[in-house]
Write a structure and sequence with these properties.
Number of helices: 15
Radius of gyration: 29 Å
Strand content: 15-25%
Mean pLDDT: 82
Strand order of the largest sheet: 7-6-16-15-12-13
Number of strands: 16
Low-confidence stretches: 275-289, 390-421, 427-433
Helix content: 25-40%
Structural class: alpha/beta
């Protein structure tokens, strides 16, 4: 007996491949689709849809495309790590051209003539860019210029950008103000809440042909939400694995035992949206000291906050789930991380939009010194080292490598008397080695 026969399903209910027939219209998905549909009758400006990986953006786009009328001509570009010229070639290719071995000015002329021709024939033209978070600023500027192509009456190209949350960070960059002014509507797809998740699972099972009632016990839904975080793709993965576990055990329904077996099989932890992105860091063992790092947050020479942290990872960014939360359009959602331990603190740029600067020098990864000033947009972080360093110890100024070298030498000199060892230590300290 097959997996589908066992549960009396006509097809797999939780496939990862986007399928418009399975789309579940939560309130936010319905609203996002309405925004996309508005591009058809609102010719000026364009729409930006963002969402986490697996939130259903691509399925939403496919559903939107499947319902377009015959008077709409569209192109979908999903390979977005392109130069400006390559992007124009990709767009023209989607519209049926063979635009290769042509200069940029020729590509623009081809596209412009095509748009005017379609307008003259009563056609509406829509350009959809999926995975738009990968677009370079030059390509985004090219899109802004394309959105300005118009007749004496109206714009002739409707544009929808869809991408991961990083797209929001990119659009908030000061260098893209002109582009942002062209955006008519923006919407972010968040995760499903527990009630929506319950409806989502039952909806997909019904579309797949389930007629025998619930295939998941009621007590399973809270656990699914905890581990999948309400992200549709993760829900699909967990539910499909749970059905397989129940099938392997010959059960007619997924119970808590089957669900826990699936979680173990996937080796999943509770989703970051439930636990807090870096909650696990708080359980790191302390190294004998309560606090190692203090960060003073400033803006316009005004002190905004002072926070102290134990050993571990400290995330700085615009998202409220970060340890250091900075509400600023110049700061990325997860901009940088500070990693502190007995040796001190290192700051690392997390591929932020506007970079990390220490004393006006841009850095990717940098070991901080007490009093260093870190610049993130218009905000400054002043680092203070709270390690309990013994000032009387001559070894307190040594870095890690010197300390290890000294220990090795001490072992080799174990037969020397105490006075000789002290004189060697004093000599090292005086020479700064």
């Amino acid at each position: 007996m097959s997996y589908l026969d066992h549960f009396k399903l006509n097809e797999q209910a939780f496939r990862l491949t986007p399928d418009p027939e399975f789309v579940y219209w939560s309130k936010q998905h319905a609203r996002a689709k309405a925004y996309m549909e508005s591009t058809i009758w609102l010719a000026d400006g364009f729409v930006v849809i963002t969402g986490e990986i697996g939130s259903g953006k691509t399925t939403l786009l496919q559903s939107f495309l499947s319902e377009l009328e015959d008077d709409v001509v569209y192109a979908v570009v999903s390979q977005t790590q392109l130069t400006a010229t390559q992007f124009l070639q990709a767009v023209l290719t989607e519209f049926g051209f063979k635009p290769f071995n042509k200069r940029k000015v020729e590509l623009l002329d081809m596209l412009n003539m095509f748009l005017i021709e379609q307008y003259s024939n009563g056609k509406k033209v829509v350009l959809i860019v999926d995975e738009a978070q990968n677009l370079s600023r030059k390509v985004l500027e090219e899109i802004r210029m394309l959105s300005g192509i118009e007749t004496h009456k109206e714009k002739v190209l409707r544009i929808i950008l869809a991408g991961q949350p990083e797209l929001k960070d990119t659009l908030d960059s000061p260098s893209l103000k002109q582009l942002v002014q062209r955006i008519r509507l923006r919407f972010h797809l968040g995760p499903l809440d527990e009630s929506e998740l319950h409806e989502y699972v039952e909806h997909r099972l019904k579309i797949a042909g389930c007629e025998s009632g619930q295939l998941f016990a009621d007590e399973c839904y809270g656990i699914i939400h905890r581990f999948a975080g309400g992200i549709p793709r993760l829900v699909n993965t967990l539910c499909d694995t749970a059905l397989l576990c129940a099938f392997a055990d010959g059960k007619p329904q997924v119970d808590l035992e089957s669900l826990n077996a699936a979680i173990d099989e996937l080796d999943w932890k509770e989703h970051e949206s439930i636990t807090g992105r870096f909650a696990a860091i708080q359980s790191l063992p302390q190294t004998g000291r309560s606090m190692l790092t203090q960060i003073e947050v400033r803006a316009d020479e005004e002190k905004l906050s002072v926070q102290s942290f134990p050993a571990g990872r400290i995330i700085v960014g615009r998202s409220p789930d970060n340890e250091i939360y900075i509400k600023s359009k110049f700061v990325s959602r997860h901009h940088a991380q500070l990693i502190s331990d007995d040796r001190g603190c290192v700051i690392e740029d997390l591929n932020s939009t506007n970079g990390v600067f220490v004393d006006e020098k841009q850095v990717k990864k940098y070991r901080l010194n007490d009093g260093d000033v870190i610049s993130l947009g218009v905000h400054q972080l002043v680092y203070h080292d709270l390690r309990d360093i013994d000032d009387d110890s001559e070894e307190s100024d040594f870095d890690e490598d010197c300390e290890e070298s000294e220990l090795d030498e001490d072992r080799e000199e174990s037969e020397l008397d105490e006075d000789l060892e002290e004189s060697v230590d004093d000599a090292r300290s005086d020479t700064g080695t």
